Structure formats: C-alpha cells, structure tokens
Amino acid sequence: MTASNPKRHFLRGTRDALPFLLVIIPFAALFGVVATEAGLNVAEVMGFSILVIAGAAQFTAVQLMTENAPTVIVILTALAVNLRMAMYSASLTPYLGSAPIWQRGLVAYLMVDQAYALSQIKFEIERELTVPERFAYYVGTVAPLAPFWYGASYLGAVAGAQVPPEFALDFALPITFLAMIAPALRTMAHVASALTSVVLALLMAWMPYGSGLLVAAIGAMIVGAQVELYMERRAA
Amino acid sequence: MDQLNHTTVWFVIFAMAIGSFLIRFSFLGIIGDRQMPEWVLRHLRYTPVAVLPGLVAPLVLWPAATEGSPDPARLGAALVTLAVGYFSKNVLAAILSGAATLYGLLFLLG
C-alpha cells in the first residue's frame, strides 16, 4: 500500500491504548477523591487534570500541599517528577521532529507515559511510517485516555467516596507500566537496559525529589547502547 | 490540615501546567527536524526501558500501602504481569493477569 493513511494509524493507536483505560479510570478517580479530601474544589481538581495532565506529578503536588510544604518546593518537586518527560521528548524527536509546530505542541501537551511508550516502541519497530502516520498513531493512543482521565477525575471529585484499601489501587500504576515494558524487552540490549534501570533506581532511591530515577535512566540508556554496539560487533 | 489557600492552589496549577509543557516540548520544540548524531539516537532508543522499570521498581519492592515492607501479593502480581507481557506481547492480557494475581493473593493471604 503506497497511499499514506493516517486515519488507519489513528485507529490502531486507539485500539492499542484501550487496555490502559482499566488503569486510567480508577487512577484518575482516585486523584479526584484524594484531591477533594485535601481541600481542593472541583474546579481545582479539573485544573490539575486538564492543564497539567500528569498523574504522578499531580499526586505529588497535592500530597506536598497537604503537608504545608513551601509553594516553591511543591512546584519544583512535582516538576522533577515530570522530568523523565524531557527524555521522552528527546526520544520522540527523531520520529516527530519534522512535524508542524502545532502538532509538536499537541504531542507535548498530550505526553503521558502510556502514549509515549506505545508510540516509541511502534515507531522503532515500524521504521517505514511517515511523520503524519506517526502523529496520527500518537494522537490515536491518547484519544481514548485523555477524555476518561478528565471525566474520571471529575467523578472522583464529586463522588468523593473513600476507595477501600482492599482495592489496592496503589498497584494499578506498577501493573500498567510492567505490562507496557515486558513486550518491549525484545533484545539483549533492552533487557540489560531495563535491569540496569531497576538496580540503579533502587540504589539511588535515597536521592531527593526523584532525581535518582534520572540517574538510573541515564545509566540504563548507556548500558543499552553499549550492549547494542557489542552485539553488533559480535554479529559482524 | 489547614484550609488550603485557593489562590496558592491555582498558582501551583498554572506553574505546573507551564513547567510540564515546557519539559515535554523541550527537545521536540528546539531540535525539531535537525538530525541528531547516531550515538545520541542509539541511547534514546532505550528511553522507555530505561525509565519505566526504574520508576516501578521501588513501588513493587517497597509499596507505600504496606508502609514500605515487601508484600508477597504485590511481588507476585508484578512477576506475573511481567511474564505474561513478555511471552504473550499482549498488554491487556498482562494487565488482567496481574490484577487477577494481585486480588487472588490478597484474598488468599488476607
């Protein structure tokens, strides 16, 4: 097929992202509940979910505000939680960097872990995709997630019911991320990189404001790249 | 907790909205379609597997829900999710079997 078909890729992205609704909905509802209990009104909950649209950072900010942390610390800490997105931005640049500026702006606003991971892995495997097809796929992955992120935040805020601890919602996030990563462990280099990330993140967990994760990520990227080079040389 | 100051809350929201956008836009915006050197690209290819496992590892080993002590139900669920995802390459199957393992073990171990 020679004709570019962004619509088909949009729908593929949407289909690939649907499983994450199982996690996005309870996670967003939980944010609405927690933020409301912390004293935020519905407009503020929606302000967070629509303008910031970053789950982990939102939880961090609300948590710190309830602890009466200085406002500057609240903002900087929550933004530090989002710093991994700079790495996402860099790694999407080879695939989407030539898209029009408004499209890159939209990609940036909609950058969530699930959309990023699905897209990056897809772009890496399917090298022949055109830039419009990649953009369509990326937006397709967020299309089902963002509305439910907003909607479930709202429902959590107005319903405001306590989620019983037996639901173990704290573990929704780890399960999603593991489910995204497992299929991406395609080569020895990917496995080595992931293992390095785990070990370094645990060793660096004492570092403030989640900065240990950034150290772990950089170390893991170096290991992945080096193992890739080593395997290439051995194959040659 | 004291009453939250709503002006402060909105200040935090707008500061985080702008800051998060700038972080996300950074490289996409500045580098655009300029070619990056091959060694940089080789490192960036590993970004998802370099970031997400490190993000998850402490949550799996030291869950806040159990005050940071390792929990067999959560460890089991993590291993099942990883194994099913690795062998089936199916995200939905991995999430569902992870959740089933978590609830099953939480129920069994009470």
Structure in words:
The complex is a heterodimer of chains A (236) and B (110). Chain A has helices spanning 6-17, 21-37, 42-52, 55-66, 71-81, 84-96, 101-109, 113-125, 131-142, 145-159, 172-181, 188-203, 211-235. Chain A has 2 domains: 6-174, no CATH class; 185-236. The mean pLDDT of chain A is 90. Chain A is 75% helix and 0% strand. The radius of gyration of chain A is 19 Å and the shape is globular. Chain A is an all-alpha fold and 236 residues long. The longest helix of chain A is centred in the last third of the chain and has 25 residues, at 211-235. By secondary structure, chain B is mainly alpha-helical. Chain B has a domain at 55-109. Chain B contains 5 helices and no strands. In chain B, helix 4 (72-88) runs antiparallel to helix 5. Chain B is flat. The relative contact order of chain B is 0.06. Chains A and B meet through helix 3, helix 4, helix 5, helix 6 and helix 7 of A and helix 1, helix 2, helix 3, helix 4 and helix 5 of B.
Helix-strand layout with pairing:
The complex is a heterodimer of chains A (about 240) and B (about 110).
Chain A: H1 6-17, H2 21-37, H3 42-52, H4 55-66, H5 71-81, H6 84-96, H7 101-109, H8 113-125, H9 131-142, H10 145-159, H11 172-181, H12 188-203, H13 211-235
Chain B: H1 6-30, H2 38-44, H3 47-61, H4 72-88, H5 91-109
Helix pairs in contact in B: 4-5
